[in-house]
Design a protein that fits this description.
Chain lengths: ~425, ~425
């Protein structure tokens, strides 16, 4: 291989600035490591005048993406513009022009996986995307390489910093969801429109990528259950803590049992002695179980300018060291026979419902649950002022999702039940 | 590269059997991944008759190590016999015969690093040793590759399962060290002679390897402070928990501040909200801080037949995918200017001392501490039956190690002080 490597960066936003800053700060380290002359040759953005607070040679800047895509001297293209288009077009063009690609674009990978990977394979170039899941955490490379001797059995990820920050604050301070969300927005930990993070879509996109690398199967988001954290209340968190010794986390779950793969995103009640329960604030953690290694966890900052830049530049270094590496993205032959429908997933459940305090309430509710073969492990009724609706907390033994949803639908229709019954699955 | 890869395994003990079992179980997975025909061609051990409980073709077995070392068809040699000799001789011969090497032999690497690496470099072959630190945890490869864009600033490792198991049991059950050690020995978590684990030597050897990969400097064990867990009592653990909200862990620490590297192994008081405090039982965890990525942690089983085999086979796969990878072991140009002497390390300290209950005791002790510029953050005196010696617990502000050791030496000589004063550093 030639002794100099040229890199082109598309997208000079927050992460892009972090990448420029990383090359500025650790230029010698990177060059010594790969024993090449590595150069960030071109940075392209529509806006090349705003000061990003990082040093950049004005001659490197351009508004024309073809200064990267059509430059035969550029070996690696970093795509950090985000979104579907024109990012997809640019990535495909880069791959088709024989350039390796590094991207943090989880949305794009989750939606256009097959097309992108096909282009990389056809052109015998690599696409790396460590930054797309878990920000700076070494996660995809270890999963794909260090753990390569393993059939992955289970993946549990806390991979959205916004949702985890909100749940952590609610837990530590006993505050309501809306209240903490507002604070998170003020602090810049949540977007003005937080839907994507709090409804689990971001987590789902990342889970798609983890599932490909872990289980060798591409499961589109339409095919699995995705549920956010907006219905979780301080009461739920308090009950989980005091009665169950647990906390509530938004988990991305991918789990293979007898050839059947469960893929799902939802708030989950996690025991406090499980390491995932210690992943707090904006931090991310991914807990994997391999058939040889057993459980492992990787932890770190799942977002942010510099952590994400660390992963992007790490990918560049990996590519420079191995431009001819066989391109494997997860196991080549998947052990997955079917993707299990959510209704067939079996869990233990926590239920919170609100009723008028009158005789026979518990009898009726437990009767409905019993109709669906759902048996109760515990029931707690909260004291309230006379005449006010009463919250009831229940924990069930293992039950099928379809039974639980059918039972809850009937329970919600009872005339003494107020509001919507919430259920949260136990890990 | 040729399409078939032959592997020779030296050492058919516990880990060796795990490696054979991994190849048996996941043969297809491994071959599909690397797109080669990978074969465990030869397994050498002095004892090839004892049944290890794993399936192995008798024709593969041999008692002659040259069936591996001198076989030109063998590409990768796995060394799992342990110890210094003849392991060193065999590894050097393998490297000199142009074979790549995979080993879990931390003792050997820690002692003969320069010689081994020089041989690998001269022969343009690779030596991989993921299994030598943290068993199956993806740790060395992420440190060396995924995090390659970072200058490592700090490494904190819980990397000895035996010591961690003992401290965890002492914490959870309030039991004495000796008592838990005995149980650990009965359960097979501690050796008949546990010195190596409980006195920190095993941790120290692993820290040497982490320090090379993290900071690009080889610091021999004689050059740093290594202290085990034998002096830790349930009283210390209880005080740490109740008064400080902390737990006690045996930490391997390597930390670079202004070009000065601190390298040390000792029991450490760790805040309960630090992720390392959740690394319990026989599990290991390594907490790293990079200048770009910030903090990350890797967690998993640090020992055992299958977890360690996972790392060994993962290394084989890595080598097969990249036989020509530039051989970098940590940063090529170290940022370390000097290795700090232990006496110059500054810590906050917890002290436990036992005195006769008489007037002026605290005054005298605090006077001695004050002579060495050590100021107290808190003092607790435990109630005891009249006439019995009184334990006193103290927490200091930051102080130099040399001042603390000098002060404790004087305190131990006071006629009202009983037994040895114990001090434990705070993280």
């Amino acid at each position: 291989m030639k002794d100099n490597v040229n890199i082109g960066l598309i997208g000079f936003g927050t992460i892009g600035s972090g990448v420029v800053e990383t090359f500025n700060q650790n230029f010698d380290l990177i060059n010594d490591k790969v024993k090449k002359d590595v150069k960030l040759k071109r940075v392209v953005d529509l806006d090349i005048t705003t000061d990003r607070g990082v040093k950049v040679d004005p001659e490197v800047l351009s508004t024309d993406v073809n200064d990267i895509l059509e430059d035969p001297e550029i070996d690696i293209v970093i795509e950090l513009m985000g979104g579907y288009q024109p990012a997809l077009k640019f990535i495909l063009k880069a791959l088709n022009n024989g350039k390796h690609v590094v991207t943090a674009n989880k949305a794009l990978l989750a939606k256009h996986w097959e097309e992108i990977i096909a282009a990389a394979r056809e052109n015998n170039v690599r696409i790396c995307f460590e930054a797309s899941v878990g920000g700076g955490i070494p996660l995809l490379q270890p999963l794909n390489e260090s753990l390569a001797a393993n059939n992955v059995k289970e993946i549990y990820g806390i991979i959205n910093g916004t949702a985890n920050y909100i749940l952590t604050k609610m837990t530590e301070e006993g505050r309501e969801f809306e209240d903490v969300l507002k604070e998170a927005q003020e602090k810049g930990y949540a977007e003005a429109d937080p839907t994507f993070d709090i409804e689990g879509h971001d987590t789902a996109q990342k889970l798609i990528i983890l599932t490909i690398l872990g289980f060798g199967i591409y499961v589109k988001q339409e095919r699995f259950h995705v549920e956010g954290i907006t219905k979780v209340t301080p009461d739920d968190i308090l009950f989980a803590k005091e009665e169950l010794g647990c906390c509530i986390k938004l988990l991305a779950i991918s789990k293979l049992v007898d050839g059947e793969l469960e893929v799902r995103v939802h708030p989950t009640i996690v025991p406090e002695d499980h390491l995932l329960s210690s992943v707090n604030g904006v931090f991310n953690g991914a807990y994997l179980v391999g058939d040889i290694v057993g459980p492992v966890m990787m932890y770190g900052q799942g977002a942010g300018m510099m952590p994400t830049a660390s992963a992007v530049v790490g990918d560049c270094i990996d590519i420079i060291q191995n431009m001819t590496k066989p391109v494997a993205y997860g196991p080549e032959k998947s052990k997955v026979k079917t993707v299990k429908a959510m209704e067939d997933v079996r869990s233990k459940y926590y239920l919170r419902l609100t009723t008028i305090d009158q005789p026979g309430v518990l009898h009726t509710i437990s009767g409905i649950l019993s109709d669906y073969s759902i048996s109760l492990e515990s029931v707690n009724q909260k004291q309230t002022a006379k005449g006010e609706p009463v919250p009831i907390f229940m924990v069930t033994h293992g039950a099928l999702e379809k039974h639980m949803t059918a039972a809850v639908e009937r329970i919600n229709k009872l005339d003494f039940v107020r509001g919507e019954t919430v259920f949260i699955r136990l890990l």
